[in-house]
Design goal:
Helix content is about 60%, strand content about 0%. The chain has about 80 residues and is mainly alpha-helical. The protein has one domain (about 5-80). The longest helix has 22 residues, at about 5-25. The termini are far apart.
């Protein structure tokens, strides 16, 4: 499947907003549910892992709260962290 520039821009925007959303929500200092020790690299790695895990049973919700929670679970599991 070949994407045009408009599609690529839309996907890039959506993913950037989602990454920001996850980072904001779980930020150790000011997050709604802070994760002590979480880094931006952990967020990026977890989002990439989540996107690569999507299939017929685990689908992308457009960056909704379920997507965020699934990424949170990856961050916690892969880095031995806990919600503060």
């Amino acid at each position: 499947m070949k994407l045009n520039k408009t599609q690529i821009k839309a996907i890039t925007k959506m993913m950037s907003e989602f990454i920001f959303y996850v980072g904001w929500f779980y930020n150790a200092k000011t997050g709604v549910h802070p994760i002590k020790g979480m880094t931006n690299t952990m967020v990026l790695d977890a989002v990439q892992k989540y996107i690569n895990s999507l299939n017929d049973d685990i689908t992308w919700g457009g960056g909704d709260s379920l997507d965020r929670e699934r990424v949170r679970d990856i961050i916690l599991a892969d880095n031995g962290l806990e919600i503060a």
